[in-house]
Amino acid sequence: MAKLNLPNKLTLFRILMVPVFLVILVAPLPLEDWIIRVVAAALFALTSLTDMVDGKIARKYDLITDFGKFMDPLADKFLVFAAMLGILTNDMFSDLRAVFVWAAAIVIFRELAVTSIRLVAAGKSGLVIAASWLGKIKTTTQMICIVVVFLEPVIFPWDIFRKYHVLSYFTIAVMAVMTLWSGIDYLRTYWKFLDPEK
Description:
Layout: H1 6-26, H2 33-60, H3 66-89, H4 97-125, H5 133-155, H6 159-162, H7 166-190
Helix pairs in contact: 1-2, 1-3, 2-3, 2-5, 3-4, 3-5, 4-7, 5-7
């Protein structure tokens, strides 16, 4: 088995953190809600930051590998999907569920569609589709939204935030819009690889 370089180790770390993160969110731990929120947000934020770190290291020291190209975007999706599933299944977030489920569906469908396009493009032409600026903004809005959903009632204990979740709803809306926009942009740009007559 080939030895993993540092960026690939960080990618693998992100993947291994997903079940740990999910346990914090869905297991019946004897902890107060605010502690679970803070720990989940900290784990999510720190794990997400390794994505930026491993990318910078890989580019700076020319450590880009096929493993990294394949696993790095998957690790991000695993983490985001896990966070969304945790939010949808934990009763602590039940006030947001009716809206968040639609945003989560948009995110999951978009990520599956774009990943499929990337696989088709790679298979037909060997083209590796890099993340666009819209894709990067989309990812950022997803990360911000999830952290806000976790921390809003902890950081802002007033009724307008604790009961009505104004920041959470706002970031959910921004995330959904950016996810749709970036997905449509990918489809428009790479539709040529999906010719139904070929």
